[in-house]
Fold:
Amino acid sequence: MSVFKDAGHLFRFAGLFLLAFLVFLVVRHYVVPKSFGEYGHYRGAAIGEIAAHPAKFAGHETCEGCHTDETAKKMAGKHAHVNCEACHGAIFQRLPVPEQPKPSLYERLVALVVKPAPPDPPLLLHAEDPASVKPELPDTAVLCARCHTASAAKPKGFPQVVPAEHSNGLPCQTCHDPHSPALNATSLDATKQAAGGAK
Amino acid sequence: MNISRRQMLILLPAAAVAWKSVLAGTPEESPNYKMTDHWWGMLIDIDKCIGCGNCVRACATENDVPDGHFRTWVERYHRSDWPMTKSGEVTANPLIVPEVISPDGGKEGFPVATDESGKYFFVPKMCNHCADSPCTQVCPVGATFISPDGVVLVDQKYCLGCAYCVQACPYGCRYIHPTKEVADKCTLCYHRITKGLTTACCEACPTGARQLADLKDPNDPIHEFLKTHSVQVLKPQMATGAKLFYNDLDGSVR
Structure:
């Protein structure tokens, strides 16, 4: 037993060590997010949080549910593969962010480890409330020119024009229906009269 | 079109379910999405890109990307007919001298090119959602990761903003968000693809140059495309397992 004769200080030290370890476990339990390690070395809940962002582009399937006339016309024409929101853009309004309740002491402690992200501003989509979110008519002079202005850099087969020479300054929709842009004989005649012989 | 009462009774609930899935705001409301059933990537067809910048604008709108930073951007390459350096000396390697421009990331399109000589093409760029991504490996706190469905994401609540990942990405696809002061990058519109929508850039692309691809879906057209086309990834020598597949990519693209 002579080995343990003066070992009291070692036991005291081991006790302190054990206590420190317990404190470490308790602190760790509170500061490591619950879902950390669920799928790997990261916070599993982050996946759900990222997936919960609101979508602003409704997707062409949503538009086609109501705007059946335009869809039918578009599908028969050369812009069949151009989605609605490629030209019209995402149609939405931002709503004011609601007041956040004051964080509790515990929440403020957790915030030291996991930063509270500012909440996404709520959105009102045209697809959800067509009456209150009105789309603006796109300006064809800007819109059409983005794709169809002639440039040596664009693929050769893509239809391109020099806007100044092509339209005599008339807006594109004078002759072309953006939903089905190919000219038919009637619209061409009417246009020639209006424009005094556009190319 | 005549719809009988019986057909209407079947159609209406189906439409309601479809509408619900479109509007679903939280993952709990997307119960049909199983992460293990997907492995996301993207196909970019260089031949179809016209450099309109629709994708860059759509991405900025959808994801509130701050001005001057880009989750996706478009570069215009111009390879001259003669292998010359910019100072006019003839060089042995014709691949090293493309002129590359990307004014404001191509957000407002590109200036009209008048020089008919040489070869022009547009290269849309974004996160390659690498299967072995260097950026996720360097994160000291586990704030960036590859999700079980193959999307490289950033946990912005956990990120310290140390920017190791910004340096580690060989494709330059990450930046530090100026106000949030955390790493930000393309999420492959994770909030959209988990709800059955395509990404904002694919939705807005007028020529179909960008196609979202689910490599685990046997019916996805990507499989046929990869078999029948000459498809390349960026910097294959980095062995990052990039999942952004470029059709007809020029050898001069870096």
